[in-house]
């Protein structure tokens, strides 16, 4: 009998601990995923029997809202539940309501665009505007009674806005600095398929992407935090052209998916294949460091690129704004030289140049 009661108590205690653990985990998830308010956000406050305090309010540039008959309330960085509690406390403190009769409802109407800064290992670091919307979208959202989902007010959107992370980015320890507090975020799950906590942002957040000791090939592909595509400039001319149009060259470059390699650019530029005498053609990949201006180049035989590449040095990844130029084979060069000499020494050409070349 005592054993049965003891077992029942143990089971009851274990179940209660499981429930508490689940509740705590749910609380943590909700806290992580909740979006804090920023300047420009619009909220609706409803208070039964308190029409003077109800209405639609926009967070000012100083991060405060102005509720009638209350001092300005600082709400930037707070979640909706925290804003609700802050308004409740202010109304009680000013003795406008009795605690047991006061009910406060706060709902989001519209999330605004915000500015954050991104530095470190991204292709286009700088100040980024996320969650920007057209005037038409904002107008339509204002007609909604409540609720708004801002898919672009998250960390991944800011990294995308900065051009995406580079191959040598350390995405396990991305730093998010807010109000002087430094937090590290791991986004490797974007590439591995593991769950990822995409952190919501507020105006003024600072994001730093640290550098990894070595480039990581698994990150060189389209994703939420890398560019979907890149622009590469191609050239494949047997002889100099007078203009881009005559050379069939696009002035704005050619597009490739992020993760494409030099071999794909060679094929796209029609440098590969052809007659046997063209098999010793070679390709030149040129890359300019965006910060220092240093130019790095790779000169590779096209046949080796296509047939015997074994590593990234043999067949490197293409990066944004790379340039690829294809050069003719030695056979073609010799043939062109001989053709030029033959044309110059041709008797008919000599006679024409002497007697008729200067006539207008």
Give helix and strand order, one letter per element, not per position.
Answer: HEEEEHEEEHHEEHEEEHEEHEHH
Second CATH tier, the architecture of the largest domain: Roll
Structural class: alpha+beta
Q: Percent of residues in helical segments? A: 25-40%
The overall pLDDT average reads 81
In whole angstroms, the N-to-C terminal distance is 125 Å
Write up this protein:
The structure is a single chain. The protein has 360 residues and is an alpha+beta fold. The chain is built from 9 helices and 15 strands. The chain folds into 3 domains: 42-110, wza like fold, CATH 3.30.1950.10; 114-133 and 146-219, Outer membrane lipoprotein wza domain like (Outer membrane lipoprotein wza fold like); 229-328, Ubiquitin-like (UB roll), CATH 3.10.20. Mean pLDDT is 81; it is low at 13-32, 240-244 and 331-335. Strand 13 and strand 14 (295-301) form a beta hairpin. It has helices at 2-33, 80-93, 135-142, 155-161, 189-192, 262-268, 302-307, 330-345, 347-356; strands at residues 42-46, 55-58, 64-65, 73-74, 105-110, 114-120, 126-130, 174-178, 181-185, 206-209, 229-235, 254-257, 282-288, 295-301, 323-327. The radius of gyration is 32 Å and the shape is elongated.
Structure in a nutshell:
The chain has 360 residues and is α+β, with helices and mostly antiparallel strands.
Q: What attributes characterize this protein structure?
A:
15 strands; 9 helices; 21% strand; 3 domains; wza like fold; 5-stranded mixed beta sheet; Ubiquitin-like (UB roll); 360 residues; 29% helix; Outer membrane lipoprotein wza fold like; alpha+beta
